[in-house]
Amino acid sequence: MSTIKVHVDMNLCQSHGECVFAAPDVFELGDDDVLKWEEEVDESERAELEEAVNVCPMLAIRLEG
Q1: Would residue 23 be called left, alpha or beta, if left means φ above 0 and alpha means ψ between -120 and 50 degrees?
Q2: Which of 4, 16, 9, 21 is nearest to 60 (CA)?
């Protein structure tokens, strides 16, 4: 099973939440507006992950794999 590693630079992230709309199974904004995410995601989620990367206004998300 192939996986994708998801990296978020929390020094760049400003919790806009666009990634949550693009990939809700991967990203979540907590009650404190702090972003949480799955660090390893199945290849089947690639399209949603790429959309999350593209909509992030701070360019804080990077995929590996």
Answers
A1: beta
A2: 9
One-letter amino acid of 20: V
Do residues 38 and 6 lie in contact, with contact meaning Cβ atoms separated by under 8 Å? yes
Q: What tens digit of pLDDT does each residue of 27-49 get?
A: 999 999 999 999 999 999 999 99
Q: Tell me the residue type at 33.
A: D
Residue in 48, 46, 50 with CA at minimum distance from that of residue 62: 50
SS (H, E, C) 1-65: CCEEEEEECCCCCCCCCHHHHHCCCCEEECCCCCEEECCEEEHHHHHHHHHHHHHCCCCCEEEEC
Can you tell me the mean pLDDT for 8-22? 97
